[in-house]
Amino acid sequence: MLFADVVLPLPVDHPFTYEIPSDIKVVVGSRVLVPFHKQKKVGFVIALHDRGGHHPLKKIEALPGPPETDLSPSYLEWLIWASHYYLAPLGEVLATALPSPFFKLDPRQSLPQKKSRSSPLADHWVHEKEVVLNDEQQKVFLQIRDNVFSGEFKPILLHGVTGSGKTEIYIHLIHEIIRSGKQVLYLVPEIGLTPQIVARLRHHFGEKLALYHSGLTENQRLREWLRVKSGTAVLLVGTRSALFGPFCNLGMIIIDEEHDSSYKQEERFRYQARDLALVRGKMEKIPVLMGSATPSLESYFNAKNKKYLFYSLTNRPEASAFPKITLIDMTVEKRQSGSPLILCRELHQAIADTLNRREQVLILFNRRGFAVSHFCLACQKGVVCPHCSVVLPYHKKQNILLCHYCDASQTLTSVCPSCGSSQMTLIGSGTETLEGELKTFYPQARINRLDRDSVQKKGALLSVLKDLREGKIDILVGTQMIAKGHDIARVTLVGVVGIDAVLGVPDFRSSERCFQLLTQVAGRAGRGTMPGKVIVQSFNPKHFSIKAVDDHAFDRFYEQELKWRSELGYPPYGRLIDIRFFSPDSGKIQHFIKWLFVQLPSLSIHETKILGPAPSPIEKLRGRYRWHLVLKGTSPSALRQTALKILSLRDQGGFKGIKWAVDVDPINML
C-alpha cells in the first residue's frame, strides 16, 4: 500500500497521512481532495511512502480540478524551505502563496464563463514614454546584462540616486530576458503607488504582462496565476504576493525599491519577500536584481562584502539636477516667530513663489488626522483607545476620535473620561490641519490630500495621482504615500514636516527609516527641466540621518549607521527572532510571563541571547495585551534551535488563551 503526506491550509505544524487508492495516481505536488473530520478539504501531497502506521487511515478521495493547479516539486521545495526558515506551518505558507480558489473543489468554477470585463490593468493610465539610455545607464545596463545570462544565481544591487533612471535599465533587461524565451518577475512595494511603472511596462509588453496584488478580485488573481503558469504571460508585476507566481521558465527577478518595509508580511506567515526572492533565485539558478536609491543596511552590507554584485547610477539625466535642500531648525523658528502655524516662514514663501511660477508642490506630513490628541489640561491625559494603549487622534471631517491601529472611533466629548474635568483641548496637528492651513493661505490654489483617510473609496488613489500628473493639483499634502515612485516633471518644491516623529519611534531602524523617507521624498522635486527645492522642518536638524540627506552623503550615513549597528550587534551584524505573546486577559498574560521567565535560563544555547520578556512598545493592541522576547545572535541555526526550544513550551504550563507568533528577521519592533 502507498500513502501520501498531505498538507492542508491550516495553521498546524505537521501534514496528515492518507492511503492512496489503487485507482488514483498522485505525485509530489498533486492537488487532492481528502476527508478531514466531518468535512472534505483540498490539500497538496508533499511526500509519498509505504509507512501507514498502526491504525487504518482515511483515503484520498479525488484529484480535483485541472492539472495546471498542481505544484511543481521545485516550487514545493521552495515553500518547504520558507516554512522551515520562518518557523511557519507549511499549511499557512500554502494558504498565503496560492490564490484562495485553489482550495475549492474546482478552482475553474471561480472563473466567469465569459471574458472578464475588467482587466487588472484597466485603471492604469497610458504612458507613451520611450526608453533611451544615457551613457551612464547604458554602461550599467551592459555590465548587468553580462551577468544575467550566466546561467547561475547572481544577486545584484543597483544603487541609483532618485531620478537616475533605474526603471529604464529594468525595461531593457526585461526585453533581453523575454527575447531569450524566459519569464520575468518584477516586484514593487505597493502597486497603487506606482501606476506610472505599470503603465510604462504595459506600453512595452502589452498582453504579455500580468498583474498580481491583493487589490484584485479572486477571479482576476486566479486568471493571472494561470496565465503565468501556462507561459501566456511572460512578465508578472506585483506586490509581495506576486513572489509566489508559478513560473514555468523564470529567467530573472527584479525587486524595485528593495528597502521598502512593505515587502515584509506582518501577519500569519511573516516572510520577507526580498529575502525569499533571493532564495528562489538561488534555487532556480537565476539572477535577482535589487534596486533602490536608499538600499537597506543589509543589502548595502552584502554588496560591500562582495556577496552581491554592486552597480551605481550617480547622476540624473542631463536635463535635471539634484534639488537644493534647506534645513529649518524649528526650535529657532518658533522662538523667533512665535507663530502657531505648522509651516515655517521660509516654506510659506517658497510655496507662494512656486505657485506664481505655475509649478507644483508636495508636502510630506507623516501623521494623518486633524489633531494628535483630545487632551485634558486638568489631569494631563489624552483620551485613550479602549482597545489599544494609544491616544486617539481627532479627525475633523468625520468629527470623531479615530484609532489608527484598530479603527475604533468615539465622538468628541467635553468631559474628560479620566477625571471628569471640562478642561479638554485639541493638541498637535496632522494632514487635515495642514490642508486647512494651506487653504487659508492660498485660497486660489487647487489643494488636495493623499492619506489613508482620503483614498478609502475604490479608485480614489489613482484619481488623485492622475490629477497630480495632469497638473490639476497645485499643492498635494500627504503621508509617506506621496514619497514613493512618483515622477511628476512640474513638481519643483517639496516640503517636509514632522520628520522628528520617525526618529522618535523606539526601534533600532528609526534612523535608517528617517534617511530613506527623506531621501525618497526629496527625490520627487526637480525631476524635469526645472530646478527643484526641498525644505525640511525639524527640531533636530543636526541628527546625522537628516544631515546626510542635506549633504547628499549616502556613503557617510551608511558607514555611520553600520558602525553603530556593529557595536550593538544588530542586523546586518546579527540576526533577530521576535517571539510575541497575546491575550485579552491582562492578568493571565502576566501570570504566563512570570512562568515563562523561570523557564528561559535553561533554553538559550551558545551564541544566542534572550532579551526579555517585556511588554511590547504598544502594550495593548486591538483588545489584546502584548509581550515579546527577542532572540539575538550571529548564528541562524543557533537562533532557530533556541526558538524551537521556546516554542516547545506552548503545550506546557496549561496557559490556554495565550496566542504565540514568531517573526524571523523582524522589521517592525512595535
Could you tell me the number of beta strands? Answer: 27
Number of helices: 18
Query: Could you say what the CATH topology of the largest domain is called?
Result: Rossmann fold
- CATH architecture title of the largest domain: 3-Layer(aba) Sandwich
Shape: globular
Helix share of residues?
A: 25-40%
Structural class: alpha/beta
Quick one: CATH superfamily of the largest domain? P-loop containing nucleotide triphosphate hydrolases
Instruction: Give the C-alpha Rg.
Output: 27 Å
Distance between the termini: 51 Å
Largest sheet: 7 strands, parallel
Strand ordering within the main sheet: 7-8-6-9-10-5-11
Mean of residue pLDDT values = 90
Strand proportion: 15-25%
Provide keyphrases for this structure:
GIY-YIG endonuclease; 7-stranded parallel sheet; 5 domains; Rossmann fold; 27 strands; 670 residues; 6-stranded parallel sheet; alpha/beta
